[in-house]
Design goal:
2 helices; 53% strand; mainly beta; disordered N terminus; 10 strands; eight-stranded antiparallel beta barrel
Length: 191
Amino acid sequence: MIRTAAAALATVLVAAPALAEPVAYAFDKSHANLSFSYNHLGYSTTDGRFGDWTGDLVIDLDAPENSKIAMKVDVATLDTFWEERDNHLKSADFFGVETHPQASFSSTEVRKTGDNTLEVSGDMTIKGVTKPVTFDVTVNTVGEHPMAKVPAVGLDATAVVKRSDYGMTMFLPYVGDEITISFSAEALQAK
């Protein structure tokens, strides 16, 4: 009887479809952008971007909650398209890149919220301060990349943080406290 049950269990396990494993993806930085924006005096929106960053992305298509992302940003590569402002933002008044050259984000939870939407929560560290942040993510497409001929994913993510939470209080309330972070990227399955 035990032998028959063991044989039946082995047959079921062999015949059952294998569950997909989490898969690592590499960002195509030529088709990616990490940017930020904020309100200036109620008159305009100022935009900027970070030119150098790295990211590790692991996706589990069958169980998105097992997916994860970790990013590191070289803050000295920020560019708001005006050098004088860039230099001020890099100073101790804001990012303090001499003592805090890197910002980072590491996910702690991924939650599916719709057919192609996720909430990705995690820890963001800027200027040595770590705070919880949640990104709203839209998965634009998942499938074989038409040019690279490998599995690929495209996504857009946004979050709003308060710069004052990270010790950047200069010019408040005139220059906005809320900073919108936007990330758009293509990623290809890692080899």
